[in-house]
Amino acid sequence: MSAGVTKRSVMIAGHRTSVSLEDPFWDALRAIAAARGQSVPALIGAIDAGRGAQNLSSAIRVFVLATLQAPAP
Fold first, then answer.
1. CB 49 within 8 A of CB 63
2. Per-residue pLDDT band at 1 (split at 50, 70, 90)
3. Over 60: is that where the pLDDT of 2 sits?
4. Are the C-beta atoms of 35 and 45 separated by less than 8 Å?
5. Which among 12, 45, 5, 10 is positioned nearest to 63, based on CA atoms?
6. pTM higher than 0.70 for the full model?
7. Taking a C-beta distance cutoff of 8 angstroms, is the pair 42, 30 a contact?
8. Domains, the chain, ranges and CATH?
9. Are 30 and 40 in contact (CB under 8 A)?
10. Which residue has the higher pLDDT, 71 or 44?
């Protein structure tokens, strides 16, 4: 399985940053944001706020994985 990496610029906490993720992670992130009634930048901002010293792209991947593995409410 080959997944291209896409770099996107997002505004978080008042500054622009770029995030590189594989396309399936972008797709999942969009779906999670939509299900929560959030924009993708707002969701990334929330992930950023709680990531500590972890790389932002890695924090997003871990968030997506954890969200998809969590049991449905």
1. no
2. low
3. no
4. no
5. 45
6. yes
7. no
8. 5-69 (1.10.3990.20)
9. yes
10. 44
